[in-house]
Queue: 2 jobs
Job 1
Amino acid sequence: MRINKRFFFWLIFFAGVLQTWSQRNRILSDTISYLDIADSYRVGNLNSALNASWSPFYSWILAVFLSVFHPSVAWEFPLVHWVNFILYLCSFFCFEFFINKLLAASDRHSSSVRALLYFVFLWTSLHLTTMNFGADLCTSIFLFLALGILAQNIYTLHNRGRWILYGVCLGFSYLSKTVMFPFSFFALAALWIPFGRKEAPRYALLSLAGFLLVAMPFATALSIKKQRITYGEAGSIAYAWRVNKIEHFNYWFGSPDEKYGTPEHPPRILLQEPKTYEFDFPQNATFPLWKDPSYWMEGRKIRVEVTNGLDVMRDNLTKRLPYYVKGPFLEGLIPCLLILFLAQGRSRKRAPPIILAVLFFSTVCVLTYAAVHIHGRYVAAFIAMICCSLICWLFKPDQEHKKLYAGICCAMAAIIALSFIQLARRDLSGVGANTYYPLEQYEVAEYLKKSGFLNGEKIAYAGPYRKMMNAGWARLARLKIISHIDTDDLSWVQNKETARNLTDRLKSYGIKAIITQIPGAPAGSGWERINQTTYYVYSFKKRSTTMASDSSSTSRATGNPWMDP
């Protein structure tokens, strides 16, 4: 058993290293927001750091590492991924604690069962969560730890301190993800399964005390800032977007009937053609529109809509969830578990109380997500716990089903091999030449810095919204995207009056440049390609002679409004 554990540890370790290194230059909009919040904590600006959309724990971790290592432009994103790798290892150790208690509680000691549980962790962590989402890795740490403590408490002498610790872990899970505040009450309700009405209330109260001890300081500070009772607003915003169907991504201007409320802080519309928005924010952020979505959604009214809710749940359970969990491993594991369930028949023993408690908690959480919005990383830890519980319940090798278990083990070995060949092939494509995630973000940031852009200067982005959200180059160059020109082409550049009007409006808001990934600007219009990247820039700043001599002469000759005088 010790050799097996060592083998699987190194397998999990090197699989994590491979994915971390392959995706080291990739950064997503959520992570950019966490980094901006981490900067606020680093300088002690708590008003800016307190955020109703993004939970604080991951930002605290990033703030510590950024303060210790002070990474350069080239190393900031890789540092984030190595931090995520450390969280991934911590998640594994907590998972090890969880399955040890689960195996002991369900009386399973087979090495094949343990091996299968390790592969569940690998698949859910590297396929569903991945190294790009450190906040979700933080949540899995505290979930595995909490459920491991629950398993230990059920089958050992009851200790008040451990019940308080159970609540403390749930409290930290809330600090890592807002939705864990209501989910923690599901975890407390799960105590009624093993303990019933006699003992469960006493243990639940002890756990609740531990939970409130950790959760209330942040929830109180957030409520004071928002001037209303709140523990976070990520869930209500997601419900407004997905179920109430109000405008996504914070371009919310309300509706004439005010059915869903009236926005208190709507973005400004600078021009109708091309459609141009401005969304400066009284706090520093790379992308103010995404640093705290709750600010832009102030004034919303949540309406319970049963028909829309059922449609959303059906879509999540029949389309989105299967899309994320698809793959040889889980698609192979589920039929194997079903075969075992049916084959055992009357000889199948009733599931131990801890199995039922974990299944209840995890299933209710997945269904709650399904009622609003599902993503693979949201449900990864819950799917891992569901799979582990079912495996510990049904995988019990015995003489009666010896051949069946041998066949299933062979089938699972083939499925696992195929699954991890796919994962490794994807991750290997990002190693070395960096073809998977190119280095454009760094090149653009370096170019803008060398062109004289200063920290905190404001810029506009022209192009699709989603490409603007993942603007890692703006984070690296410490620039603020405060305006969006919502367009798919640059045909409007050729209209002299439109171009001058847009330029004047953007300059009046202190914007220094427009960045786009749309090619096709007319020659001599002042748009410059940033090295060999897919990015183009039009700068309102006074450029150096070497960078702009040719284009400026064209401007004087043509009178083009896109050229600086």
Note: The chain has a mean pLDDT of 85.
Job 2
Amino acid sequence: MKPFLIPLLLTSSLILADQHSPNQEGTRQIHLDFHTSEEITDIGAHFDKEQFQQALLAGNVNAINLFAKGHHGWSYYPTEVGAMHPHLDFDLMGAQIDACREIGVKVKLYFTVGWSVRDAELHPEWRLINKDGRSPHEERIKGRGLDDPLPQYAWYYLPPEGPYVDQIHQQVKEILENYEVDGLWFDIITPFRINYNDWALNDFEAHGVDPTDDHAVFQRHREKYEAFLHSTAELVSRINPEASVFFNGTTANFNSEQLNQYQYEFYRFNSKYDLEDLPTAWGGYDLFPWRSKYFANLDKDIIAMSGKFHKAWGEFGGFKHKDALWYEAATMVAFGANVNIGDQLHPSGIMEMATYESIGHAFEYVEQIERYGIGADHAASTGLYLGGDLSALEGTTRMLLETQVNFNVVNTREDWSEFDVIIITSGGLFEADLAKVRQYHANGGKLLFLGEGFLHNGNPIVNVGADLLGRGNYDIDYTVALPAVGARIVDSPFLNYRAALRLNPHPDTEVLARIHEPFFSRTLRHFSSHANTPYRLEAATHPAAIRKDNVILLAHDLDLQYRAQGMRLHRELFFNGLALLRTDPLVEVELPSMGRINLLHQPDDRRYVLHLLYATPIQRGEVQVIEDLIPLHNIPVSLNLPLDIKRAYLVPSGIPLDLKADSGKVSMVIPEMTGHTAIAIEY
């Protein structure tokens, strides 16, 4: 086939990260939980090397996290520093390592830090204490008797400071000197938990820190965590330079406080990035995509983590359907990550074959597609900035994913000028990035702001073409979209569950949408009907959306409202505003709203890979489940890439696609997909 000549685009329309170093982690991993109480006997008594190997082979596994020390504080090998489980009479960890080596499975060892019952009982002075002098764990179980139910994930937290760190380092040294391993995996590292126990107070005094000065306390707290992370990583590297190191918690973001920790880059002490996302119970299926993009820019291996559990970690007898595991694994590859599925070993040491049959179903597919995704570079012309509000970020991400807007995260990118447009959520900017976004704007970069995202300390970040008058006059208000942003939006005023900021646009600013205010806020004194007050017929003087040159401001926090209420009209207004700025997207795909896309680049193979996913998670009780993978047919795809395309074919089938050139773009049609497919585009 003769190559199609695609006109060369400006460099601002394409993002290409540096090539990642060769993958050292293993593409199909298991995280084998093993937290066992001293009240359970015969630990590992039924471990059988061949049965253990059969399970891993059935699962098509090539790497595993095994347990050196679990949350109960017991170790699973003979130790002179810690204590081996009292009902374990042989070196279980060593036997597991040997079994893995025989079948070519990489081995990383798990070591708990923050939760260790035995250490908390032997050294109550090591336990974390809040600023109010109380133990958060004791507050959680307050009033419960010994025979009352214990809440899940209820442990004393041990901050890594003082003599506890010395004990950790001694045991890590013992492990590394006695076992050949490929890495160490440290769990329960939570830098957002500030400690005020006696060790911490003595440390504050020694460093001249006033414990009532929250800022000074955090700075010293940060120094202590960084010292622990640095010294531990250095210890591992000194004894085994080839071993990977990961501190779980440094890449966590299940609340805004953790997201704000990203600006301090605690994750920089890792040699790889494991992203622990349990979509069924922890944040849903739209959490992982933006996290993968944030960390992929940092040029280290990415490992996506989910679990075989119906709900979450620690669940015995819970099974996620094999098709859901398959979809999750395909999603991980589609977003460039290695795949890790969590399991939990029975105290007896017997591997659950039903689990590995399900995992094998997923990993067989991963093996077919992994070379078309894992370690690849994310390519996008639309940028998303991660501010300090997780809910705003989640709302924006959902609107992007549901409209199949291919994007990358800008926070960890050095050069923002390569993005055509950057979205700033209502969570705003971190101080360190103010100059960067202003320079981007001064150089002609396009910005889309949501709500208060255009403000920093109450002042506009850039000129948005309006003066801020204040917050809304009422509890809610209504939007009327004008034609420029009116596609697929009703002509009538539509509800906003929180009122917009009041803006006074400058004469040369274009108004894109108007506001109608209610007659009054709904209160005990003034109310009408069951819910919100109806709108006034005349428009307010302050607008809902404005455009000034390369800047669009949507005056409502549509990201927060979309996350909370999911109104499609809010998503359409956001998308239409973005479309005015996003004039030259690299890829366009027509999919239902639960369709997901991601464009990857593999320059060494001279190809792009466009991944498409479709599944419909359903909220059932406390969890999201995927039960039905529905086929889609005749999916149109349009590409606008700066290259001469030689051929395009489906992955993993290899079926070639017919290409049509039109106005500098190449289009094709995917005949059918179920759950996942990808297009390899060679040049």
Note: The first strand starts at residue 4 and ends at 5.
